[in-house]
């Protein structure tokens, strides 16, 4: 059976056709794939989707490298439109927005460039903080204190259950 293709699917680009035929419009619930798509979408700003899709393999290799270097880290990717019950009233204005939490302490909440090197530096910096330093930083400003109250993922997930 031949799949009817949209007019935007460039017939000269096999990657683009494969994306159109096998991924576009197909629901995805795999956290790694969702993270990949989040980064590709962020990278798209000002570029065509075809251009970004052509860079996909290099993104995959970079993020696989981060995961290999930090096997003890767990990431949860939440689509704020599909999982609005989790984020509730949490104000997310820019994409991608990243929340980094260690145990019950929110270490970072903010916009992140869709760049593997930036993500790795952030993961490494947060992991290197001593618990006492993390606790001190969590209370160091009104904004960070609000993160503890409004952005605690454990609390948000419990409340959504």
Short description:
The chain has 9 helices and 2 strands. By secondary structure, it is mostly helical. The protein has one domain (14-160).
Q: Describe it for me?
A:
The structure is a single chain. By secondary structure, the protein is mainly alpha-helical. It has one domain. The protein is 52% helix and 8% strand. It is built from 9 helices and 2 strands. Strands 1-2 form a two-stranded antiparallel ribbon. The termini are far apart. The mean pLDDT is 77.
Output the keywords.
9 helices, 52% helix, mainly alpha
Architecture blueprint of SSEs:
Blueprint: H1 14-22, H2 31-43, H3 49-54, H4 56-69, H5 84-87, E1 97-102, E2 105-111, H6 116-128, H7 131-138, H8 142-150, H9 153-160
Antiparallel strand pairs: 1-2
Helix pairs in contact: 4-6
The gross shape turns out to be: elongated
Which whole number gives the mean pLDDT?
Answer: 77
Number of separate domains: 1
Largest sheet: 2 strands, antiparallel
Contiguous runs where pLDDT drops below 50 for at least 5 residues: none
Number of helices: 9
Strand order of the largest sheet: 1-2
N-end to C-end Cα span: 42 Å
Using the CA coordinates, give the radius of gyration.
18 Å
H/E element order:
HHHHHEEHHHH
Percent of residues in β-strands: 5-15%
The strand count comes to 2
Structural class: mainly alpha
How much helicity do the residues have?
Answer: 40-55%
